[in-house]
Amino acid sequence: MRCCACLSQQQTLQCSPSKMAAEEESNSRAPCLNFSSPGPLGNAQPSNNAHSSPATNEGSAGATGGAPRTAGHSNPQPGPDRGGGTDVRVEHSPNRQHTTPQSAGQSATAARAPTVAGGAATNMTASSVESPNIPSSLPSSPASAAVLVYREPVYNWQATKNTVKERFAFLFNNEVLSDVHFLVGKGMGVQRIPAHRFALAVGSAVFDAMFNGGMATTSTEIELPDVEPAAFLALLKFLYSDEVQIGPETVMTTLYTAKKYAVPALEAHCVEFLKKNLRADNAFMLLTQARLFDEPQLASLCLENIDKNTVDALAAEGFTDIDLDTLVAVLERDTLGVREVRLFGAAVRWAEAETQRQQYQPTPENKRKVLGKALVLIRFPLMTIEEFAAGPAQSGILSDQEVVSLFLHFTVNPKPHVEFIDRPRCCLRGKECSITRFGQVESRWGYSGTSDCIRFSVNRRIFVVGFGLYGSIHGPTDYQVNIQVIHTDSNTVLGQNDTGFSCDGSSNTFRVMFKEPVEILPSVNYIACATLKGPDSHYGTKGMRKVTHEAPATGTKTCFTFCYAAGNNNGTSVEDGQIPEVIFYT
User: Fold this and answer.
1) Would you list the DSSP string of 148-216?
2) Other Cβ atoms within 10 Å of 334 Cβ, number
3) What is the pLDDT of residues 129-138, one digit of tens each?
Protein backbone atom coordinates (compact mmCIF):
# COMPACT_ATOMS: atom_id res chain seq x y z
CA MET A 1 0.00 0.00 0.00
CA ARG A 2 1.38 3.39 -0.96
CA CYS A 3 2.12 6.12 1.54
CA CYS A 4 -0.81 8.50 1.25
CA ALA A 5 1.19 11.38 2.70
CA CYS A 6 3.74 10.91 -0.02
CA LEU A 7 1.08 10.81 -2.70
CA SER A 8 -0.45 14.07 -1.42
CA GLN A 9 2.89 15.84 -1.30
CA GLN A 10 4.38 14.81 -4.65
CA GLN A 11 6.08 18.14 -5.06
CA THR A 12 8.24 17.57 -1.97
CA LEU A 13 8.44 13.78 -1.54
CA GLN A 14 9.68 11.59 -4.39
CA CYS A 15 9.05 7.84 -3.92
CA SER A 16 11.39 5.41 -5.73
CA PRO A 17 9.78 2.60 -7.75
CA SER A 18 11.84 -0.13 -6.13
CA LYS A 19 10.99 0.93 -2.64
CA MET A 20 7.27 1.25 -3.52
CA ALA A 21 7.29 -2.28 -4.87
CA ALA A 22 8.80 -3.51 -1.62
CA GLU A 23 6.09 -1.70 0.27
CA GLU A 24 3.31 -3.27 -1.80
CA GLU A 25 4.62 -6.72 -0.89
CA SER A 26 4.30 -5.91 2.80
CA ASN A 27 1.35 -3.52 2.91
CA SER A 28 0.38 -4.72 6.37
CA ARG A 29 3.52 -3.10 7.70
CA ALA A 30 3.47 0.22 5.87
CA PRO A 31 2.07 3.27 7.77
CA CYS A 32 -0.52 5.64 6.30
CA LEU A 33 -0.27 9.20 7.59
CA ASN A 34 -3.91 10.15 8.09
CA PHE A 35 -4.77 13.40 9.93
CA SER A 36 -8.50 13.00 10.13
CA SER A 37 -9.02 10.55 13.00
CA PRO A 38 -8.58 12.22 16.39
CA GLY A 39 -8.49 10.26 19.60
CA PRO A 40 -10.28 11.00 22.84
CA LEU A 41 -8.10 14.01 23.56
CA GLY A 42 -8.25 15.27 20.04
CA ASN A 43 -4.91 13.44 19.79
CA ALA A 44 -3.82 10.04 18.54
CA GLN A 45 -5.48 6.89 19.86
CA PRO A 46 -3.49 5.49 22.77
CA SER A 47 -1.95 2.05 22.79
CA ASN A 48 -2.57 -0.38 25.63
CA ASN A 49 1.16 -1.03 25.78
CA ALA A 50 2.78 1.13 28.44
CA HIS A 51 6.27 0.71 27.00
CA SER A 52 8.01 2.12 23.98
CA SER A 53 8.80 -0.16 21.04
CA PRO A 54 11.57 0.35 18.54
CA ALA A 55 10.83 2.09 15.28
CA THR A 56 9.99 -0.36 12.56
CA ASN A 57 8.60 -0.17 9.07
CA GLU A 58 5.18 -0.59 10.73
CA GLY A 59 5.38 3.10 11.57
CA SER A 60 5.61 2.92 15.40
CA ALA A 61 7.50 5.73 17.06
CA GLY A 62 8.34 5.62 20.77
CA ALA A 63 7.71 8.93 22.51
CA THR A 64 9.63 9.68 25.62
CA GLY A 65 7.45 9.20 28.70
CA GLY A 66 4.52 8.03 26.56
CA ALA A 67 3.04 4.96 24.96
CA PRO A 68 3.77 3.92 21.37
CA ARG A 69 1.16 4.78 18.83
CA THR A 70 0.72 4.55 15.12
CA ALA A 71 1.59 7.46 12.95
CA GLY A 72 -1.80 7.26 11.29
CA HIS A 73 -3.53 9.57 13.81
CA SER A 74 -3.52 13.32 13.97
CA ASN A 75 -3.45 15.96 16.65
CA PRO A 76 -6.14 18.42 15.59
CA GLN A 77 -6.03 20.38 18.87
CA PRO A 78 -2.36 20.74 19.84
CA GLY A 79 -0.89 22.70 22.68
CA PRO A 80 -0.78 22.63 26.46
CA ASP A 81 -4.54 22.94 26.89
CA ARG A 82 -5.13 19.67 25.09
CA GLY A 83 -2.45 17.70 26.84
CA GLY A 84 0.65 18.87 25.00
CA GLY A 85 2.72 16.70 22.71
CA THR A 86 6.15 15.91 21.27
CA ASP A 87 7.12 16.99 17.78
CA VAL A 88 8.18 14.02 15.63
CA ARG A 89 9.98 14.84 12.40
CA VAL A 90 9.59 12.50 9.45
CA GLU A 91 12.51 13.41 7.17
CA HIS A 92 13.33 12.01 3.71
CA SER A 93 17.05 11.82 3.07
CA PRO A 94 19.23 9.54 0.98
CA ASN A 95 21.43 8.64 3.91
CA ARG A 96 19.11 8.73 6.95
CA GLN A 97 16.22 6.34 7.46
CA HIS A 98 15.26 6.65 11.15
CA THR A 99 12.69 8.46 13.30
CA THR A 100 13.36 10.26 16.55
CA PRO A 101 11.26 12.43 18.87
CA GLN A 102 12.17 16.06 18.67
CA SER A 103 13.02 17.71 21.96
CA ALA A 104 11.50 20.97 23.07
CA GLY A 105 14.62 22.86 22.18
CA GLN A 106 14.98 21.16 18.80
CA SER A 107 11.36 21.62 17.87
CA ALA A 108 11.72 25.36 18.35
CA THR A 109 13.87 25.44 15.24
CA ALA A 110 11.12 24.12 13.03
CA ALA A 111 8.67 26.56 11.48
CA ARG A 112 5.25 25.25 12.58
CA ALA A 113 2.26 26.45 10.59
CA PRO A 114 -1.03 24.68 11.43
CA THR A 115 -2.92 23.84 8.27
CA VAL A 116 -6.67 23.37 8.08
CA ALA A 117 -7.55 20.41 5.88
CA GLY A 118 -11.05 19.06 5.82
CA GLY A 119 -11.93 21.15 8.89
CA ALA A 120 -9.12 19.78 11.12
CA ALA A 121 -5.97 21.72 11.93
CA THR A 122 -2.71 19.79 11.67
CA ASN A 123 0.80 20.66 12.75
CA MET A 124 2.53 19.00 9.80
CA THR A 125 5.10 21.36 8.25
CA ALA A 126 8.08 21.05 5.97
CA SER A 127 11.53 21.67 7.38
CA SER A 128 15.09 21.46 6.14
CA VAL A 129 16.41 20.45 9.56
CA GLU A 130 17.78 16.90 9.36
CA SER A 131 16.75 14.24 11.84
CA PRO A 132 19.03 11.29 12.54
CA ASN A 133 16.31 8.66 12.13
CA ILE A 134 13.74 8.16 9.37
CA PRO A 135 11.27 5.28 9.05
CA SER A 136 12.68 2.65 6.72
CA SER A 137 9.29 2.28 5.06
CA LEU A 138 9.46 5.78 3.59
CA PRO A 139 11.32 5.97 0.25
CA SER A 140 14.59 7.74 -0.29
CA SER A 141 15.00 10.58 -2.70
CA PRO A 142 18.14 12.19 -4.13
CA ALA A 143 16.40 15.54 -3.74
CA SER A 144 17.07 17.79 -0.80
CA ALA A 145 15.61 16.66 2.53
CA ALA A 146 11.88 17.39 3.14
CA VAL A 147 10.61 16.84 6.67
CA LEU A 148 6.94 16.47 7.72
CA VAL A 149 6.44 17.40 11.37
CA TYR A 150 3.40 16.39 13.42
CA ARG A 151 2.71 16.73 17.12
CA GLU A 152 3.09 13.46 18.99
CA PRO A 153 0.60 13.38 21.94
CA VAL A 154 1.66 13.04 25.53
CA TYR A 155 -0.76 11.14 27.73
CA ASN A 156 0.54 12.15 31.10
CA TRP A 157 -1.30 15.46 30.69
CA GLN A 158 -1.61 15.66 34.45
CA ALA A 159 2.08 16.51 34.67
CA THR A 160 1.51 19.75 32.74
CA LYS A 161 -1.27 20.94 35.08
CA ASN A 162 0.08 22.43 38.29
CA THR A 163 -3.21 22.96 40.15
CA VAL A 164 -6.47 21.15 40.71
CA LYS A 165 -8.24 24.01 38.94
CA GLU A 166 -6.09 23.54 35.84
CA ARG A 167 -6.69 19.80 35.80
CA PHE A 168 -10.45 20.17 36.13
CA ALA A 169 -10.50 22.95 33.54
CA PHE A 170 -8.68 20.60 31.16
CA LEU A 171 -11.45 18.02 31.56
CA PHE A 172 -14.18 20.50 30.58
CA ASN A 173 -15.98 19.30 27.44
CA ASN A 174 -13.32 16.62 27.07
CA GLU A 175 -13.69 12.90 26.44
CA VAL A 176 -10.76 12.11 28.74
CA LEU A 177 -12.07 10.12 31.73
CA SER A 178 -15.65 11.09 30.81
CA ASP A 179 -18.28 8.68 32.13
CA VAL A 180 -21.49 10.36 30.99
CA HIS A 181 -22.73 12.21 27.91
CA PHE A 182 -25.56 14.71 27.62
CA LEU A 183 -27.68 15.08 24.50
CA VAL A 184 -28.51 18.77 24.86
CA GLY A 185 -31.13 20.61 22.81
CA LYS A 186 -33.70 19.27 20.43
CA GLY A 187 -34.22 18.70 16.75
CA MET A 188 -31.29 19.41 14.50
CA GLY A 189 -29.61 21.43 17.25
CA VAL A 190 -28.87 18.49 19.55
CA GLN A 191 -25.28 18.50 20.79
CA ARG A 192 -23.51 15.55 22.48
CA ILE A 193 -21.45 16.86 25.40
CA PRO A 194 -19.08 14.72 27.50
CA ALA A 195 -18.90 15.20 31.25
CA HIS A 196 -17.72 13.61 34.48
CA ARG A 197 -20.19 12.54 37.15
CA PHE A 198 -17.87 13.40 40.03
CA ALA A 199 -17.23 16.96 38.83
CA LEU A 200 -20.94 17.60 38.30
CA ALA A 201 -21.99 16.10 41.63
CA VAL A 202 -19.45 18.24 43.48
CA GLY A 203 -20.88 21.44 41.99
CA SER A 204 -24.61 20.76 41.90
CA ALA A 205 -27.03 19.11 44.33
CA VAL A 206 -29.28 18.24 41.40
CA PHE A 207 -26.51 16.37 39.62
CA ASP A 208 -25.54 14.73 42.91
CA ALA A 209 -29.06 13.37 43.30
CA MET A 210 -29.13 12.38 39.64
CA PHE A 211 -25.99 10.26 39.90
CA ASN A 212 -25.81 9.26 43.57
CA GLY A 213 -29.33 9.52 44.97
CA GLY A 214 -31.79 6.80 45.77
CA MET A 215 -33.12 6.82 42.21
CA ALA A 216 -29.79 7.54 40.51
CA THR A 217 -29.63 7.00 36.80
CA THR A 218 -27.32 4.36 35.38
CA SER A 219 -27.56 5.67 31.84
CA THR A 220 -24.40 6.96 30.21
CA GLU A 221 -26.40 9.22 27.88
CA ILE A 222 -28.90 11.71 29.28
CA GLU A 223 -31.23 13.76 27.11
CA LEU A 224 -31.83 17.43 28.00
CA PRO A 225 -34.26 18.74 25.38
CA ASP A 226 -35.26 21.80 27.45
CA VAL A 227 -31.72 23.18 27.76
CA GLU A 228 -29.77 25.17 25.18
CA PRO A 229 -26.33 23.72 24.36
CA ALA A 230 -24.59 27.08 24.82
CA ALA A 231 -26.17 27.54 28.23
CA PHE A 232 -25.30 24.01 29.32
CA LEU A 233 -21.68 24.51 28.25
CA ALA A 234 -21.61 27.76 30.23
CA LEU A 235 -22.85 25.82 33.27
CA LEU A 236 -20.21 23.12 32.84
CA LYS A 237 -17.50 25.73 32.29
CA PHE A 238 -18.42 27.28 35.62
CA LEU A 239 -18.56 23.93 37.45
CA TYR A 240 -15.19 22.82 36.09
CA SER A 241 -13.23 26.07 36.29
CA ASP A 242 -15.25 28.81 38.05
CA GLU A 243 -15.08 30.77 34.79
CA VAL A 244 -18.19 32.72 33.80
CA GLN A 245 -19.05 32.78 30.11
CA ILE A 246 -22.29 34.68 29.57
CA GLY A 247 -23.39 37.28 27.05
CA PRO A 248 -26.52 39.13 25.99
CA GLU A 249 -27.66 36.21 23.82
CA THR A 250 -27.13 33.48 26.43
CA VAL A 251 -27.67 35.11 29.81
CA MET A 252 -31.37 34.22 30.15
CA THR A 253 -30.93 30.59 29.07
CA THR A 254 -27.88 30.31 31.34
CA LEU A 255 -29.90 31.71 34.24
CA TYR A 256 -32.60 29.13 33.55
CA THR A 257 -30.01 26.33 33.44
CA ALA A 258 -28.28 27.52 36.62
CA LYS A 259 -31.61 27.54 38.44
CA LYS A 260 -32.59 24.14 37.08
CA TYR A 261 -29.39 22.54 38.38
CA ALA A 262 -29.21 24.57 41.60
CA VAL A 263 -25.98 26.50 41.04
CA PRO A 264 -26.71 29.75 42.92
CA ALA A 265 -23.27 31.25 42.34
CA LEU A 266 -23.81 31.19 38.57
CA GLU A 267 -27.34 32.53 39.08
CA ALA A 268 -25.84 35.50 40.92
CA HIS A 269 -23.42 36.18 38.06
CA CYS A 270 -26.30 36.11 35.56
CA VAL A 271 -28.42 38.47 37.65
CA GLU A 272 -25.49 40.84 38.09
CA PHE A 273 -24.93 40.83 34.33
CA LEU A 274 -28.60 41.70 33.78
CA LYS A 275 -28.44 44.51 36.32
CA LYS A 276 -25.47 46.09 34.55
CA ASN A 277 -27.24 45.88 31.20
CA LEU A 278 -30.69 47.02 32.37
CA ARG A 279 -32.05 49.83 30.20
CA ALA A 280 -35.42 51.37 29.45
CA ASP A 281 -35.70 49.50 26.15
CA ASN A 282 -35.27 46.07 27.78
CA ALA A 283 -36.77 46.71 31.21
CA PHE A 284 -40.12 45.07 30.42
CA MET A 285 -38.50 41.98 28.88
CA LEU A 286 -36.20 41.54 31.88
CA LEU A 287 -39.10 42.15 34.26
CA THR A 288 -41.01 39.28 32.66
CA GLN A 289 -38.00 36.98 32.98
CA ALA A 290 -37.29 38.08 36.55
CA ARG A 291 -40.86 37.23 37.56
CA LEU A 292 -40.65 33.92 35.71
CA PHE A 293 -37.38 32.94 37.40
CA ASP A 294 -38.43 34.30 40.80
CA GLU A 295 -35.73 36.95 41.03
CA PRO A 296 -37.37 39.64 43.21
CA GLN A 297 -34.29 41.85 43.40
CA LEU A 298 -33.96 42.01 39.64
CA ALA A 299 -37.73 42.56 39.29
CA SER A 300 -37.55 45.47 41.72
CA LEU A 301 -34.73 47.08 39.74
CA CYS A 302 -36.71 46.68 36.52
CA LEU A 303 -39.75 48.36 38.08
CA GLU A 304 -37.62 51.24 39.36
CA ASN A 305 -36.20 51.70 35.87
CA ILE A 306 -39.72 51.70 34.42
CA ASP A 307 -40.78 54.30 37.00
CA LYS A 308 -37.92 56.61 36.00
CA ASN A 309 -38.23 56.03 32.24
CA THR A 310 -41.89 55.15 31.82
CA VAL A 311 -42.39 56.81 28.45
CA ASP A 312 -39.30 55.19 26.89
CA ALA A 313 -40.06 51.80 28.43
CA LEU A 314 -43.63 51.82 27.10
CA ALA A 315 -42.38 52.75 23.64
CA ALA A 316 -39.87 49.87 23.57
CA GLU A 317 -40.58 46.97 21.24
CA GLY A 318 -40.48 44.43 24.05
CA PHE A 319 -43.39 46.03 25.92
CA THR A 320 -46.05 44.35 23.78
CA ASP A 321 -44.46 40.93 24.43
CA ILE A 322 -45.03 40.90 28.20
CA ASP A 323 -47.66 38.70 29.82
CA LEU A 324 -50.85 39.97 31.44
CA ASP A 325 -49.61 39.52 35.01
CA THR A 326 -46.58 41.69 34.30
CA LEU A 327 -48.80 44.36 32.73
CA VAL A 328 -51.01 44.30 35.82
CA ALA A 329 -47.98 44.59 38.13
CA VAL A 330 -46.91 47.75 36.29
CA LEU A 331 -50.35 49.37 36.08
CA GLU A 332 -50.84 48.91 39.83
CA ARG A 333 -47.89 51.17 40.60
CA ASP A 334 -48.42 54.68 41.95
CA THR A 335 -44.97 55.81 40.83
CA LEU A 336 -45.21 55.69 37.02
CA GLY A 337 -43.95 58.90 35.44
CA VAL A 338 -46.46 59.20 32.58
CA ARG A 339 -49.81 60.82 31.86
CA GLU A 340 -52.70 58.41 32.07
CA VAL A 341 -53.80 58.96 28.49
CA ARG A 342 -50.42 57.69 27.25
CA LEU A 343 -50.68 54.72 29.57
CA PHE A 344 -54.05 53.90 28.05
CA GLY A 345 -52.55 54.10 24.55
CA ALA A 346 -49.78 51.68 25.54
CA ALA A 347 -52.35 49.27 27.01
CA VAL A 348 -54.29 49.34 23.73
CA ARG A 349 -51.08 48.52 21.81
CA TRP A 350 -50.46 45.58 24.12
CA ALA A 351 -54.05 44.39 23.65
CA GLU A 352 -53.68 44.47 19.87
CA ALA A 353 -50.57 42.26 20.10
CA GLU A 354 -52.26 39.93 22.56
CA THR A 355 -55.30 39.41 20.34
CA GLN A 356 -52.95 38.32 17.56
CA ARG A 357 -51.16 35.91 19.90
CA GLN A 358 -54.49 34.41 20.91
CA GLN A 359 -55.66 34.42 17.27
CA TYR A 360 -58.58 36.78 17.92
CA GLN A 361 -59.83 39.51 15.64
CA PRO A 362 -58.55 42.89 16.95
CA THR A 363 -62.04 44.20 17.72
CA PRO A 364 -62.69 46.52 20.70
CA GLU A 365 -64.58 43.68 22.42
CA ASN A 366 -61.64 41.30 22.09
CA LYS A 367 -59.19 43.98 23.21
CA ARG A 368 -61.25 44.46 26.36
CA LYS A 369 -61.36 40.70 26.80
CA VAL A 370 -57.59 40.23 26.72
CA LEU A 371 -56.97 43.29 28.92
CA GLY A 372 -59.15 41.73 31.60
CA LYS A 373 -58.27 42.98 35.08
CA ALA A 374 -55.69 45.40 33.66
CA LEU A 375 -58.39 47.71 32.29
CA VAL A 376 -59.71 48.79 35.70
CA LEU A 377 -56.16 49.76 36.73
CA ILE A 378 -56.03 52.57 34.17
CA ARG A 379 -56.93 55.71 36.07
CA PHE A 380 -59.30 57.43 33.66
CA PRO A 381 -60.40 60.05 36.27
CA LEU A 382 -56.87 61.47 36.19
CA MET A 383 -57.25 62.46 32.53
CA THR A 384 -58.56 65.81 31.45
CA ILE A 385 -61.99 65.78 29.86
CA GLU A 386 -60.38 66.63 26.52
CA GLU A 387 -57.95 63.68 26.74
CA PHE A 388 -60.75 61.30 27.68
CA ALA A 389 -63.10 62.53 24.94
CA ALA A 390 -60.45 62.25 22.21
CA GLY A 391 -59.17 58.81 23.19
CA PRO A 392 -60.79 56.32 25.57
CA ALA A 393 -64.34 57.55 25.00
CA GLN A 394 -64.06 56.73 21.28
CA SER A 395 -62.01 53.54 21.56
CA GLY A 396 -64.98 51.21 21.95
CA ILE A 397 -63.16 49.42 24.78
CA LEU A 398 -65.20 51.09 27.52
CA SER A 399 -68.90 50.35 27.87
CA ASP A 400 -71.46 53.11 27.29
CA GLN A 401 -72.25 53.21 30.99
CA GLU A 402 -68.57 53.64 31.88
CA VAL A 403 -68.19 56.47 29.35
CA VAL A 404 -71.24 58.31 30.70
CA SER A 405 -70.22 57.94 34.34
CA LEU A 406 -66.73 59.24 33.56
CA PHE A 407 -68.08 62.24 31.67
CA LEU A 408 -70.29 63.00 34.66
CA HIS A 409 -67.26 62.66 36.92
CA PHE A 410 -65.47 65.30 34.86
CA THR A 411 -68.35 67.76 34.64
CA VAL A 412 -70.80 67.67 37.57
CA ASN A 413 -70.73 68.05 41.34
CA PRO A 414 -71.17 66.06 43.44
CA LYS A 415 -69.19 63.61 41.34
CA PRO A 416 -70.78 60.17 40.82
CA HIS A 417 -68.92 57.01 41.82
CA VAL A 418 -66.79 55.43 39.11
CA GLU A 419 -65.19 51.99 39.08
CA PHE A 420 -61.78 53.34 38.19
CA ILE A 421 -59.07 54.51 40.57
CA ASP A 422 -58.83 58.28 40.98
CA ARG A 423 -55.72 58.28 43.20
CA PRO A 424 -52.95 60.26 41.48
CA ARG A 425 -49.77 58.55 40.41
CA CYS A 426 -46.64 60.14 41.83
CA CYS A 427 -43.52 59.54 39.78
CA LEU A 428 -41.35 60.34 42.80
CA ARG A 429 -39.58 57.76 44.90
CA GLY A 430 -38.73 57.98 48.55
CA LYS A 431 -40.84 58.73 51.59
CA GLU A 432 -43.77 61.12 51.51
CA CYS A 433 -43.36 64.14 53.79
CA SER A 434 -45.76 66.71 55.22
CA ILE A 435 -45.70 69.80 57.43
CA THR A 436 -48.44 71.35 59.59
CA ARG A 437 -48.47 75.10 60.00
CA PHE A 438 -51.06 75.48 62.80
CA GLY A 439 -50.71 74.68 66.48
CA GLN A 440 -54.39 74.49 67.37
CA VAL A 441 -57.78 73.67 65.79
CA GLU A 442 -60.98 75.70 66.26
CA SER A 443 -64.55 75.45 64.94
CA ARG A 444 -66.59 77.20 62.24
CA TRP A 445 -64.92 78.37 59.09
CA GLY A 446 -67.41 79.29 56.38
CA TYR A 447 -67.31 79.16 52.56
CA SER A 448 -68.96 81.36 49.95
CA GLY A 449 -67.08 80.48 46.77
CA THR A 450 -63.94 82.45 47.60
CA SER A 451 -60.59 80.70 47.60
CA ASP A 452 -58.51 80.25 50.73
CA CYS A 453 -54.93 81.20 49.84
CA ILE A 454 -51.54 81.35 51.53
CA ARG A 455 -48.18 82.36 50.04
CA PHE A 456 -45.11 80.21 50.73
CA SER A 457 -41.50 79.52 49.71
CA VAL A 458 -38.97 76.80 50.53
CA ASN A 459 -35.20 76.58 50.95
CA ARG A 460 -34.70 73.55 48.64
CA ARG A 461 -36.28 71.91 45.62
CA ILE A 462 -39.34 69.83 46.44
CA PHE A 463 -42.42 68.41 44.72
CA VAL A 464 -45.81 69.23 46.19
CA VAL A 465 -48.30 66.39 45.68
CA GLY A 466 -51.28 67.65 47.70
CA PHE A 467 -52.73 69.53 50.66
CA GLY A 468 -54.31 68.50 53.92
CA LEU A 469 -57.65 70.34 54.49
CA TYR A 470 -60.03 70.65 57.42
CA GLY A 471 -63.50 69.06 57.20
CA SER A 472 -67.00 69.64 58.51
CA ILE A 473 -67.95 70.39 62.12
CA HIS A 474 -71.38 68.82 61.47
CA GLY A 475 -70.40 65.20 61.14
CA PRO A 476 -69.65 63.12 58.03
CA THR A 477 -69.83 65.31 54.92
CA ASP A 478 -68.70 65.42 51.30
CA TYR A 479 -66.89 68.50 49.97
CA GLN A 480 -66.17 69.64 46.45
CA VAL A 481 -62.81 71.35 46.16
CA ASN A 482 -60.45 72.82 43.62
CA ILE A 483 -56.81 73.01 44.67
CA GLN A 484 -54.07 74.96 42.89
CA VAL A 485 -50.43 75.97 43.12
CA ILE A 486 -49.74 79.32 41.44
CA HIS A 487 -46.42 80.92 40.59
CA THR A 488 -46.69 84.32 42.29
CA ASP A 489 -44.66 86.50 39.91
CA SER A 490 -46.15 85.19 36.66
CA ASN A 491 -49.55 84.22 38.07
CA THR A 492 -49.18 80.88 36.25
CA VAL A 493 -51.16 77.89 37.51
CA LEU A 494 -48.52 75.14 37.88
CA GLY A 495 -50.87 72.44 39.08
CA GLN A 496 -54.52 71.98 39.90
CA ASN A 497 -57.17 69.36 40.54
CA ASP A 498 -60.92 69.74 40.61
CA THR A 499 -62.02 66.93 42.91
CA GLY A 500 -63.72 66.16 46.19
CA PHE A 501 -63.15 64.53 49.56
CA SER A 502 -65.17 63.01 52.37
CA CYS A 503 -64.70 63.86 56.02
CA ASP A 504 -65.89 62.12 59.18
CA GLY A 505 -66.70 65.19 61.29
CA SER A 506 -63.46 65.08 63.27
CA SER A 507 -60.87 67.84 63.51
CA ASN A 508 -58.37 65.78 61.53
CA THR A 509 -57.08 66.91 58.17
CA PHE A 510 -58.15 65.16 54.92
CA ARG A 511 -55.86 64.62 51.96
CA VAL A 512 -56.57 66.22 48.59
CA MET A 513 -53.99 65.35 45.93
CA PHE A 514 -52.85 66.81 42.63
CA LYS A 515 -52.97 64.68 39.50
CA GLU A 516 -49.23 65.20 39.02
CA PRO A 517 -46.46 66.47 41.31
CA VAL A 518 -45.83 70.21 41.23
CA GLU A 519 -42.18 71.23 41.21
CA ILE A 520 -41.29 73.92 43.76
CA LEU A 521 -37.93 75.67 43.38
CA PRO A 522 -36.00 77.20 46.27
CA SER A 523 -36.42 80.90 47.16
CA VAL A 524 -39.36 81.34 44.76
CA ASN A 525 -42.79 82.53 45.94
CA TYR A 526 -45.86 80.39 45.29
CA ILE A 527 -49.51 80.56 46.35
CA ALA A 528 -51.43 77.55 47.65
CA CYS A 529 -55.16 77.83 46.93
CA ALA A 530 -58.18 75.73 47.94
CA THR A 531 -61.75 76.57 46.90
CA LEU A 532 -64.24 74.50 48.95
CA LYS A 533 -67.97 73.97 48.51
CA GLY A 534 -69.65 72.57 51.58
CA PRO A 535 -70.75 73.29 55.15
CA ASP A 536 -68.75 75.12 57.81
CA SER A 537 -65.54 73.38 58.80
CA HIS A 538 -62.84 73.39 61.42
CA TYR A 539 -59.92 75.80 60.98
CA GLY A 540 -56.44 76.28 62.37
CA THR A 541 -55.07 78.91 64.74
CA LYS A 542 -51.73 79.80 66.32
CA GLY A 543 -50.09 79.63 62.91
CA MET A 544 -46.32 79.57 62.40
CA ARG A 545 -44.49 81.72 59.89
CA LYS A 546 -41.63 79.20 59.52
CA VAL A 547 -41.98 75.42 59.66
CA THR A 548 -39.03 73.04 59.25
CA HIS A 549 -39.19 69.36 58.31
CA GLU A 550 -36.16 67.20 59.09
CA ALA A 551 -35.75 63.87 57.27
CA PRO A 552 -35.27 61.10 59.90
CA ALA A 553 -32.82 59.07 57.82
CA THR A 554 -30.57 61.80 56.42
CA GLY A 555 -31.22 64.78 58.68
CA THR A 556 -31.93 66.94 55.63
CA LYS A 557 -34.00 69.97 56.54
CA THR A 558 -36.74 71.49 54.39
CA CYS A 559 -37.80 74.94 55.63
CA PHE A 560 -41.18 76.47 54.63
CA THR A 561 -41.80 80.21 55.02
CA PHE A 562 -45.46 81.35 54.94
CA CYS A 563 -46.69 84.87 54.13
CA TYR A 564 -50.01 86.61 53.68
CA ALA A 565 -51.42 86.29 50.15
CA ALA A 566 -52.72 89.65 48.94
CA GLY A 567 -56.28 89.91 47.68
CA ASN A 568 -59.48 88.15 48.64
CA ASN A 569 -58.41 84.93 50.36
CA ASN A 570 -61.50 84.06 52.47
CA GLY A 571 -59.68 85.18 55.62
CA THR A 572 -56.86 82.62 55.54
CA SER A 573 -53.58 84.06 56.78
CA VAL A 574 -50.38 83.03 58.50
CA GLU A 575 -52.12 83.11 61.90
CA ASP A 576 -55.32 81.16 61.10
CA GLY A 577 -57.53 79.69 58.36
CA GLN A 578 -57.49 76.68 55.96
CA ILE A 579 -54.75 74.72 54.17
CA PRO A 580 -53.08 73.48 57.36
CA GLU A 581 -50.84 70.88 55.64
CA VAL A 582 -48.57 70.67 52.62
CA ILE A 583 -47.76 67.14 51.38
CA PHE A 584 -44.53 66.84 49.41
CA TYR A 585 -41.53 64.77 48.30
CA THR A 586 -37.94 65.96 48.40
Assistant:
1) EEEEEE-S-GGGG--SHHHHHHHHTT--TT--EEEEESSGGG-EEEEE-HHHHHHH-HHHHHHHHSTT-
2) 13
3) 333 333 333 3
